[in-house]
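Input C-alpha cells:
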C-alpha cells in the first residue's frame, strides 16, 4: 500500500482505528477522521512516529453534510488523490422493540450509517473516477438478516449492502472496486455505545462467546485492498465461530 492514500471515517476507535494501523504498517498514507479530535491527534502522532507515513487528522462528524462537502473540497490537491475510502463510521443505539425505541436513536443511526456514508461516498468517488479506486464499506451481518430489538440498526446495514451493490453497478465501467465487509460480533466500543455507556451490559453481551476483534476485521479489509487490480472482492461476511447470523448465537 506504499504511497496509497486511504481515507478512513470513524478512525479514533474500534475497526476504523485498527484499519488505520494495519494500512499504516503496510506503508499507506492516511486521512483519518473522527468526532473525537483529542483521541485522533494522539493516534495521528503514534502512526507517524511508528510507521513513518503521512497522516492527516480531520475533525468530522459524517452526519454534517455541509462539513463533509467542505472538508473534501478543501483538501490539498495531493491529499485529494484518495485511492481507498473506508466508510467505517457507524453505530448502533439502543436494543429495544421498534415500537418502544427512541426516535432520536433511530435518527442518529440513519444519519450516521446511511446518510453519512452517502455524503462521503458522493464527495470522494468522483475524485477516483479518472484514476483507480476502492470503496470499502463496513456493513454488518445485521444487514443480511434482521434480529429482534435491532430493527433500525439492521435496516441501516441492509441499506449499506444495497448502496454497495448499486454503487458497484454504477462503477462497473470504471477501475473502481466496491467491497462490503459484513462482520458479526466484534468486541469494540460498539456495545458500550449501543447500551449508552453501560459497560456491564456491554460486557455481558459478549459473555460465553469469543467475539471477533477489530484487528481480525482490519486484516480482512487490508486483504481485500491488496488484491490484483482485476480482482474485486464484493462481499465478506465474517462471524465468530459460534455466531451463525446476527441474532443466532451459541453462548457457553
Ligand atoms: C454488529 C453485528 O451481531 O453484533 O454489526 O449485531 S452484531
Amino acid at each position: 500500500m506504499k504511497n496509497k492514500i486511504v481515507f478512513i471515517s470513524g478512525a479514533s476507535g474500534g475497526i476504523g482505528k485498527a484499519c488505520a494501523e494495519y494500512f499504516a504498517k503496510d506503508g499507506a498514507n492516511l486521512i483519518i477522521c473522527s468526532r473525537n479530535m483529542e483521541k485522533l491527534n494522539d493516534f495521528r502522532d503514534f502512526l507517524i512516529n511508528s510507521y513513518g507515513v503521512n497522516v492527516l487528522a480531520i475533525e468530522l462528524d459524517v452526519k454534517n453534510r455541509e462539513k463533509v462537502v467542505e472538508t473534501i473540497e478543501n483538501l490539498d490537491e495531493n491529499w485529494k488523490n484518495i485511492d481507498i475510502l473506508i466508510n467505517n463510521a457507524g453505530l448502533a443505539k439502543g436494543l429495544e422493540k421498534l415500537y418502544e425505541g427512541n426516535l432520536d436513536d433511530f435518527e442518529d443511526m440513519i444519519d450516521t450509517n446511511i446518510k453519512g456514508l452517502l455524503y462521503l461516498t458522493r464527495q470522494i468517488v468522483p475524485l477516483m473516477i479518472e484514476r483507480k479506486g476502492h470503496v470499502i464499506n463496513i456493513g454488518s451481518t445485521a444487514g443480511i438478516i434482521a434480529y429482534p430489538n435491532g430493527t433500525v440498526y439492521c435496516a441501516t446495514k441492509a441499506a449499506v449492502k444495497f448502496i454497495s451493490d448499486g454503487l458497484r453497478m454504477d462503477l462497473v465501467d470504471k477501475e473502481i472496486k466496491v467491497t462490503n465487509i459484513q462482520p458479526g460480533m466484534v468486541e469494540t466500543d460498539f456495545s458500550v455505545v449501543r447500551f449508552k455507556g453501560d459497560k456491564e451490559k456491554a460486557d455481558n453481551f459478549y459473555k460465553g462467546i469469543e467475539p471477533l476483534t477489530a484487528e481480525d476485521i482490519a486484516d480482512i479489509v487490508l486483504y481485500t485492498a491488496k488484491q490484483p487490480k482485476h480482482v474485486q472482492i464484493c462481499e465478506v461476511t465474517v462471524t465468530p465461530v459460534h455466531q451463525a447470523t446476527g441474532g443466532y448465537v451459541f453462548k457457553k
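The chain is about 40% helix and 15% strand. The chain has one domain: 5-91+102-183+213-229.
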